[in-house]
Amino acid sequence: MLAVPLMSLLLGTGARVSAARSASLVRNDHARAQGGDTAFAPEVVALGAKIFQGKAAGGLCFSCHGANAKGMKGLGSNLTDATWLHGDGSYAFIVSTVEKGIQKPKEGATPMPPKGGAPLTGDQIRAVAAYVYSLQQPARRPRSDRAGR
Ligand code: HEC
């Protein structure tokens, strides 16, 4: 029973949290984001990065948006800049875009399938959305963090 926490302790990396723990972190952060707090836990962002890059959950985002999310001409747009083609760049927008995909791209030639064409669960969608959202930090920090800019 101690094996999993002990192993993550020994391996010493935040990314190696157990599946149950990461699911509860994702849900907790999702609930907080709905209340406007979009400071996601590093473990959630790390899980989202793995999904994005195809290293977890069979995620395919990288194949159109590039492993660095900077976009690939004609395939998927840049997700790291301040320009959003289909919405306001909020966490809620990103979650719903990943759920539904994009049938009519503005720059790309091919649509984005729902979930990017991978069998992602709700929690995996939330984690990958938290990762995409976090790529724009500090530009997308909550309003209170932006005071004085
Ligand atoms: C088959 C290619 C493909 C895959 C796979 C894919 N996307 Fe996309 N994505 C697109 C295209 C095309 C667009 C729209 C770009 C345009 O309008 O020119 C897009 C748009 C988006 C947008 C909105 C960008 C904006 O500017 O409004 C987000 C967010 C996004 N993708 C995230 C993801 C995530 C996260 C994944 C993985 C779960 C993913 N995509 C997988 C092709 C893809």
| Assembly context of the chains | single chain
Average pLDDT rating: 86
Query: In angstroms, what is the radius of gyration?
Result: 16 Å
What's the helix-strand series?
Answer: HHHHHH
State the share of residues found in helices, binned by percent: 40-55%
Distance between the termini: 49 Å
- Poorly predicted sequence stretches spanning 5 or more consecutive residues: 141-149
Tally of strands: 0
CATH architecture: Orthogonal Bundle
Structural class, please?
Answer: mainly alpha
CATH topology: Cytochrome Bc1 Complex, Chain D, domain 2
The largest β sheet comes out as:
none
Helix-strand layout with pairing:
Elements lengths: L2 H9 L7 H16 L7 H11 L8 H5 L25 H10 L21 H13 L15
Task: Write up this protein.
This protein is an all-alpha fold and 149 residues long. The chain has one domain (19-140): Cytochrome c-like domain (Cytochrome Bc1 Complex, Chain D, domain 2). The protein is built from 6 helices and no strands. It has helices at 3-11, 19-34, 42-52, 61-65, 91-100, 122-134. Helix 2 packs across helix 6 (122-134), helix 3 (42-52) packs across helix 6 and helix 5 (91-100) crosses helix 6 (122-134). Bound molecules: heme C. Heme C (HEC) binds at residues 52, 59-61, 63-65, 75-77, 79, 84-87, 94, 97-98, 102, 105-108, 110, 112, 115-117, 128, 132. Heme C is lined by residues 52, 59-61, 63-65, 75-77, 79, 84-87, 94, 97-98, 102, 105-108, 110, 112, 115-117, 128, 132.
Provide a compact summary of the structure.
It is built from six helices and no strands. It is mainly α and 149 residues long.
